[in-house]
Design goal:
The complex is a heterodimer of chains A (833) and B (446). Chain A has 833 residues and is of the alpha/beta class. Helix content of chain A is 28%, strand content 19%. Chain B is α/β, with parallel strands linked by helices and 446 residues long. The chains are: A alpha/beta (833), B alpha/beta (446).
Chain lengths: 833, 446
């Protein structure tokens, strides 16, 4: 836009005698805000469509007979506005509306959770009449009524601003909360036969301008003025939502979404908002512990635990060399922890056996990850602005919910073309423009077809993709490829997604689920990769800081567990990871942990893995410490501690530092800032992932070796659900009640063919076991594919087949509902609900 | 001397005016035939030149409304007939649809062709079962005989009509609430802009016209603008159906040129007030129009004259009350109606009508407080012009006007707890002698 054009898009307005220029289309209420003038309002919300229902924000506009609502009126050239500060008409109009709103309001402020932070209370104080002329009967309702396990509704308090219902329909797309009835009996309600089911319900509590919607986890817990509020960053997924954590006497009372328009705007998902109970849970690991033959696992001092751990690691190194030690982590570490662990493994232990990927992984994934590590962008805003977004191996609503909201916003506001590639359409079915449907494992071919239409490489895809190719061409560089971490489970697919980006010169994002995954990648917690995605052969600045670099690439998670089970790997250092539950094949994880001489577990909460631990280090949760997390975009967001640590728990990086010191190496850090100062230049690589993907060269796609599927067998695709049984949801009872039931998704045509009815049970039988689950019959999954939730649901799908085999099962409809596991050999965790 | 006319009501006396054969035999579809020989733009021009103003209450110039419809959006144009006649005291469209449904359809076809519209909906008040039957029969007959559907009269023009029974909410007479309800949503008014002419039904250009308005179109096309303008006044031309109710000898629908004095309609058509009763107050155009008094009896019934007198022509639903009726009771009755029918969307209407009706009830019950009248005035001020749509302005009209003209009656109730002498307690609310009588006489009235 040229300067002249931008000038013509401005209009001049005068508000309370002060002039300003605003872009055409700016609402008067927003223009007033720019001058620091706050017009009182209830229904207005900057991220919701204008409604004009509460009539609170009325202002006088010169030349108009009656006052106008500033939340629905756009500024026009020369408009002269007078707010309540300068206009008697506006002031009287506003006072009148407040009086109306209060006649039916119960004025139970002393016992209302909102009291002290209530827009109705605050604005009544600031703008309202001093008394009431209402002497008659207020409407009365039963109070409160639960509209979900998490949200209670007090209809008497409601001012019917429709923020909650608009949030549900406009932002989240869960229209199961609506206005019912009319007149003074109009009320928020849910459908009788359909519960309010949403991953975003906490937002309606937060934006409610009165105490009508309250969170069951916070009701009657605290008064706002007794709370201290701390900015924080969510530690539940890679979205990086900014949070406000409210604390009273050292205990978290609630978490709210904090505004960051570049990331989560003003929203958060329920998992991030309500999933904090674990921090102060009675089960938290509070003291170091060691195991001996007499007492079993028992509490001890930090010094004793560190010595035992150091001895175990040293013994393994001394007997079999550094390759006999393995370091595993999951997705909860901060960037500083990840870096500390990465350096400790290579520099102190001397091993490259490090991996943060507990989920299924492929060898070629490493190339793509090396290109992504340390890069920045595409960002949320890039995603929102894109004309076309290609989504593969990612179920955003379940994995990174706030990214889903951004996609939905772009779809709603600008009809963004969202293209889903793969066997599962899932929750994107509402907003997807095209679904390039593939068989399980067929993503690579489809993505190559989009990258190189009409070529030999691209001709393999049978589906009609012409309009997608056309849309991609028309969009030029306004395209983002979102590749979920799950894509790595599909042979060649992540590499193909990278090729799509590099060949079309479009933005590429690798979207992991967990909050610490991107930091772990940037820190080099992948065998063969150093911080910033560097290889040991081209270590660059890493070589100047680290004294030792690995000479041979180490083992990945599966290889390490296999080596431990075979007795080749003697010591395992497990930092924030629970392989018994989260590794795809718990059988191998158990075998590995049983065989290893030394198992060191560093975690927040008891896990199944701790049963095998020789040493346990209690770690601080994110809310208790300083650190930073990196979003899927590559945006590093530091955060401060909000509550004191539980017991003797320590910072992960500090435990690692002390372990190194115990083993004779001083890594030289005293504070998190020291770690960050050392890590930042090594972890950050200011180049677009797309450029580095191109630099990988262009090896011809390797034909993916996948045995053909016979009639009657089904490929199992594992898609993690947002709310599982994870330890970090410990204690969040109401939140867990809103979890989606564990089901198996079956294609509607397949279901018809095998005689499977919606909601009835089906037995999945592989060559190593079977499980019975209720079926969700849907058109959002490809024929020949079934979808089951990931290990956090308690279902270890991999145990249905032999270790390492293609995950493929037969389906047998069951007449009777049953949730038993029929094969006693599969682990007890493999139980559906 | 002004005389009643029989333009829209000319078939009211016919036994078979509602059938296609009866319609054709009495000169029906002449306007449509004439319009098919005209360019669509000329039809629009004729309606503009006629000065026809909407008969649904607001009096907006019909031709101007049609002219707002953009033809270049690449979306279909819809015509929606507002037959959700819910305004208290209004029953003109009902009789028109019952007795002359083809006239409504003829007007729709002419309008549709002028608007390049091929799809229309009649949004019919849900309780209007008999008008619904007559419309259904007429639509079926029209389709069967080629007056609706493909290639009407060989003109190449296609036009479909769908009859939709509404669910009974008064607010759905408000055109944007009507469109939301027609789309299957809660009937609540929409934010404007965009206006329906640009983004109405299914976000497409839409004209919403009242039944009487659309039924007036054929005669303009058939008999010409000059003939049309020979009736009524310069700014309010043409004939108008007045529906008279209340304490008059012969309530009913009567067609007169706009600008006819109210007294002429009541005395000539209705036989005056009931014996022994004198006019005390009246609503000129339905309950949403501010009340007038006996002093206004000679007022000309046209849009501008009534506006000058501080009220509105509205629908032409004249509700006449005598000196034996308590104005406070009548106002309470209407206020309870508005409280019940408020859609609940905006604060002043939802809460204000709830409050007003409680205060009025208290006053009528003899529990009024000294400050109540002041409070009523102020609540009305805080509602009027502050609500989302015009509903609430209408809701406070009877209160504001009655407080202006009959304040002493309120004061008496507040001070003494009982009504003034001479007011019949049985006359709380609307009482008519003829209610429930055979209405077949309606129409034969000159």
């Amino acid at each position: 836009m040229t300067d002249t054009e931008s000038r013509t898009n401005l209009v001049h307005v005068t508000i309370d005698g002060r002039e300003l220029e605003v872009p055409k289309g700016t609402l008067v209420i927003r223009a007033a805000e720019k001058l620091g003038i706050t017009v009182p309002r209830f229904c207005d919300h900057p991220l919701l469509d204008p409604l004009g229902a509460c009539r609170q924000c009325m202002v006088e506009i010169e030349g108009q007979r009656k006052p106008f609502t500033s939340c629905t009126t756009t500024c026009t050239e020369g408009m002269v506005v007078k707010t309540h500060r300068t206009s008697e008409v506006a002031l009287k109009a506003q006072e009148g509306q407040l009086e109306f709103l209060l006649i039916n309001h119960p004025l139970d402020c002393p016992q209302c959770d909102k009291g002290g932070e209530c827009p109705l209370q605050d604005q009544t104080l600031a703008h309202g009449p001093a008394g009431s002329r209402f002497h008659d009967d207020k409407r009365r309702y039963q109070k409160p009524i639960p509209i979900s396990a998490q949200v209670a509704l007090d209809r008497e308090r409601c001012v019917l601003c429709a923020r909650c219902t608009r949030f549900s329909s406009e932002i989240a797309g869960d229209p199961f909360i609506e206005l019912f009835e009319r007149g003074a009996l109009e009320q928020v309600a849910i459908y009788e036969d359909e519960p309010y089911s949403s991953y975003f319900s906490g937002n309606v509590v937060q934006i409610c301008p009165v105490g009508a919607l309250t969170a069951s986890s916070y009701r009657f817990k605290a008064r706002p003025f007794d709370l201290t509020s701390h900015p924080s960053v969510c530690n539940q997924c890679s979205a990086g939502c900014n949070l406000r954590v409210d604390v009273r006497r050292g205990e978290i009372q609630r978490q709210l979404a904090a505004e960051n328009m570049a990331v989560n705007e003003m929203w958060s998902c329920d998992k991030g908002r309500f999933g904090y109970e674990f921090v102060a849970a009675g089960d938290r690991l509070r003291t170091p512990a060691v195991r001996d033959e007499v007492e079993g696992l028992h509490a001890t001092s930090w010094a004793a635990a560190l010595h035992k751990a150091a001895d175990g690691l040293q013994a393994a190194i001394d007997s079999d060399g550094p390759q006999a030690v393995g370091v595993l982590t999951g997705g909860r570490l901060t960037d500083e922890d990840a870096y500390a662990l990465s350096r400790f493994s290579r520099d102190v232990l001397g091993t490259d056996n490090v991996d943060f990927r507990l989920r299924p992984r492929t060898v070629e994934e490493r190339d793509v990850l090396s290109a992504v590590a340390g890069s920045v962008g595409p960002t949320y805003d890039d995603v929102e602005r894109a004309d076309v977004v290609v989504v593969a191996g990612l179920e955003p609503q379940e994995e990174v919910p706030i990214l889903y909201l951004r996609l939905r916003k772009a779809w709603r506001r600008s009809r963004q073309k969202i293209v889903v590639v793969g066997p599962v359409l899932g929750s994107l079915s509402e907003i997807a423009w095209r679904w390039v449907q593939t068989a399980a494992g067929g993503e690579a071919d489809a993505l190559d077809a989009l990258a190189r239409p009409g070529t030999a490489d691209g001709s393999g895809h049978p589906g009609d993709i012409d309009d997608v190719v056309e849309a991609l061409a028309a969009a030029g560089q306004r395209v983002v490829v979102l590749a979920g971490e799950r894509l790595a489970a599909s042979g060649g697919a992540l590499r193909a997604a990278g090729r799509l980006a590099s060949e079309r010169d479009i933005a590429f994002a690798w979207v992991p689920r967990r909050n610490g995954a991107r930091g772990a990648l940037d820190a080099g917690l992948v065998p063969g990769l150093l911080p910033g995605g560097r290889k040991a052969s081209a270590a660059g600045p890493v070589g100047q800081v680290w004294r030792r670099l690995p000479d041979t690439p180490g083992m990945d998670t599966t290889e390490m567990l296999q080596a431990a089970a075979d007795g080749r790997l003697k010591a395992l250092y497990l930092v924030g990871v629970d392989p018994v539950r989260d590794f795809e094949d718990p059988r191998l994880a158990r075998a590995a942990l049983e065989c290893a001489d030394t198992v060191i577990v560093q975690d927040l909460l008891p896990t199944q893995t701790i049963e095998f631990a020789d040493v346990v280090f209690p770690a601080m949760s994110a809310q208790e410490r300083v650190g930073s997390f990196t979003t899927w975009e590559g945006r590093r967001q530091p955060f401060a501690s909000v509550v004191p640590a539980q017991g003797l728990a320590q910072l992960d990086w500090d435990i690692i530092r002390q372990l190194a010191l115990t083993m004779g190496t001083d890594l030289g850090w005293e504070t998190a800032a020291d770690v960050r100062r050392e890590a930042a230049p090594l972890m950050e690589v200011p180049v677009r992932a797309t450029e580095r993907l191109r630099a990988l060269g262009d090896p011809h796609p390797q034909p993916v070796d996948r045995p053909s599927r016979d009639e009657g067998s089904f490929d199992v695709v594992v898609v993690d659900s947002l709310l599982g049984d994870g330890t970090m949801l410990l204690g969040a009872k109401a939140l867990k009640e809103t979890a989606a039931p564990v089901t198996v998704w079956v294609n509607a045509e397949d279901a018809r063919r095998i005689g499977l009815a919606q909601g009835s049970h089906v037995r999945l039988t592989g060559d190593a076991g079977s499980v019975e689950l209720p079926a969700k019959v849907t058109t959002d999954v490809a024929p020949g594919v079934v979808v089951v939730p990931g290990p956090s649901s308690g279902l270890a799908a991999a145990t249905l087949v032999a270790p390492g085999a293609v995950l493929r099962v037969g389906l047998e409809p069951l007449d009777q509902a049953s949730d038993r596991v029929s094969d006693p050999t599969s682990s007890s965790e493999a139980v559906g609900q | 001397m002004v005389e009643p006319v029989a333009v829209l009501s000319k078939r009211y006396g016919l036994a078979d005016g509602h059938t296609l054969s009866g319609y054709l035999a009495s000169g029906g579809f002449a306007g449509l035939r004439a319009s098919l020989g005209m360019a669509p733009a000329d039809v629009l021009e004729a309606v503009k030149a006629s000065g026809l103003r909407g008969r649904g209450g607001a009096g907006f110039p019909t031709g101007l409304k049609w002219g707002f419809v953009p033809q270049d959006l690449g979306r279909p144009v819809y015509l929606v007939i507002n037959a959700d006649e819910g305004e208290p005291g209004t029953f003109k469209d009902r009789e028109l649809m019952e007795r002359d449904p083809f006239l409504v359809l003829e007007g729709m076809i002419i309008a549709a062709r002028a608007l390049s519209c091929h799809r229309s909906f009649i949004f019919l008040r849900g309780e209007y079962l008999w008008p619904g039957v007559r419309l259904e029969e007429a639509i079926a007959e029209a389709y069967a005989e080629g007056w609706l559907g493909k290639d009407i009269l060989g003109s190449g023009f296609d036009f479909d009509v769908t009859l939709h029974y509404a669910a009974g909410a008064y607010i759905c007479g408000e055109e944007t609430a009507l469109l939301d309800a027609l789309e299957g949503r809660r009937g609540q008014p929409r934010l404007r802009p965009p206006f329906p002419a640009v983004a109405g039904l299914y976000a497409s250009p839409t004209v919403v016209n009242n039944v009487e308005t659309i039924a007036t179109v054929p005669c303009i096309i058939e008999q010409g603008v000059d003939w049309f303008r020979s009736m009524g006044t310069e700014k309010s031309p043409g004939p108008k159906l007045f529906c008279v109710s209340g304490e008059v000898e012969r309530p009913g629908n009567y067609e007169w040129p706009l600008g006819t004095p109210a007294r002429a309609i009541i005395e000539k058509s209705c036989g005056g007030m009931l014996p022994g009763r004198n006019l005390k107050f009246w609503a000129p155009g339905g309950s949403s129009t501010p009340l007038l008094t006996a002093d206004h009896f000679d007022i000309a019934m046209d849009f501008d004259t009534i506006a000058e007198a501080g009220s509105l022509l509205g629908t032409g639903g004249m509700m006449m009350f005598s000196d034996r009726t308590s104005v406070v009771d009548a106002v309470l009755n209407w206020t309870k109606f508005y409280e019940h029918e408020s859609c609940g969307k905006c604060t002043p209407c939802r809460e204000g009508t709830f409050w007003l009706s409680q205060i009025l009830q208290r006053i009528v019950d003899g529990q009024g407080r000294t400050k109540d009248l002041q409070t009523l005035d102020d609540i009305c001020d805080n509602i009027f012009g502050r609500s989302f749509c015009a509903f609430a302005d209408g809701a406070v009209s009877p209160i504001k006007a009655s407080l202006k003209y009959f304040r002493e009656e309120y004061e008496h109730l507040v001070d003494h707890g009982v009504r003034q002498a001479g007011i019949d307690p049985a006359h709380a609310g609307v009482v008519t002698r003829n209610s429930g009588q055979d209405r077949s006489r309606a129409g034969a009235r000159t």
